[in-house]
Amino acid sequence: MTMTAVFGKRTRSKEDYFTASQAQLVWARFVRKRSAMVAAGFLIAFILCGLFAPFLSPYDPTVAGRDKDYTNGAPQVPLFCDANGCDIRPFIHLVERHRGVDTNFRWVTRQTDKRDYLTFLPQAWSYRIGAFAFDLPGEAFDIRIPGLEVKTHLFGVEKGYIHLFGTDAAGKDIFSRTLHAIGVSLSVGTLGLVITFVLALGIGGVAGYFGGWIDTVVQTVTDAVRTVPTIPLFMSLAAFIPDEWSAETRFFFISMILDWSAGRPWRGAFAPIFWPSAPPTTSLPPSWVAPRPPTLSAGICFRASPAILSSIRSSIFPT
Predict the structure, then answer these.
(1) Is the C-alpha dihedral spanning 106, 112, 115, 117 positive or negative?
(2) Would you say residue 78 has pLDDT above 50?
């Protein structure tokens, strides 16, 4: 390789760096981090599992799909070989309910030697693709899209049930419930970001555009909400929400109350745009000076223990 080729390659590399867009620079730095690529792969896999949860789930995650003969059951791992030999088709062993002298006359669930072969793309419980429902109090603002009804699933068994992650106390399939929980978690997080962005843009824009007493009122309410610890306020609001509201409606109304403080950065961004001739911050009128966030003199410290988080989840998203 000649010196001209070496220096020409370096020159082109510098030109590409200085002429690249911001998105290209971010992507080039992102792909160089192996941990970031691995995390992105897991995130994409979770998103796909959440989107296609009904197709990947062999059974209905609710009580309608429970296996009453296999409660608190252990995970069932597909096998290719057992004491009777090997087979190219994966299978599990059937289970049965038994009671006798050996069990002290108590009902127990035990495996048998009978094989139950896996099947792919079976027809089972029905679900809808593209269905969407958003229920608000009343019927005027409800949004319902029925979608397409489908009964095809990724896998199943010829007879009985297969539970890759086992079952709970009610006999519901934990694998199916886990896949649906991924979709619910991702949808709630996405919905929360959208609600926060819209509210922050609207509240901060109004405060930054009008200023004066409107800005003072908005900032006062913001400081009042931020004074209260978030988790106790979250639990208190959830306790007063009617039980007949859906999970999306609960999250929507709670976010409307708790996201007041998100408008402060937008207020600071809109004020110089709408009032470009305003003096520096030090000489602004009192209504334009952003008040310092209040602090609790008692130094209240609140730790979110697993029990508290579990109670919040059960109060807002009941099963």
Answers:
(1) positive
(2) yes
Rounded CA-CA distance 145/141 in Å is 13
Task: Provide the H-helix boundaries in the chain.
Answer: 3-19, 22-31, 34-51, 53-56, 174-210, 212-227, 230-240, 247-258, 264-274, 306-316
CA distance 38 to 44: 10
- The Cα–Cα gap between 231 and 308 comes to 9
pTM for the structure as a whole: 0.66
Least confident stretch, 50-54, 193-197, 271-275: 271-275
Q: How far apart are CA 59 and CA 76, in angstroms?
A: 14
- Identify residue 67 by its one-letter amino acid code: D
For residues 238 and 255, is the Cβ–Cβ distance under 8 A? no
Structure tokens at 31: 């792909």
pLDDT tens for residues 273-286? 666 555 444 334 44
Asked if residue 170 lies in contact with residue 186, where contact means CB atoms within 8 angstroms, the answer is: no
- What is the pLDDT, as a whole number, of residue 56? 92
Per DSSP, the residues of 144-206 read: EE--EEEEE-SEEESSS---TT-B-TT--BHHHHHHHHHHHHHHHHHHHHHHHHHHHHHHHHH
> For the chain, how long is the longest CA-to-CA vector?
91
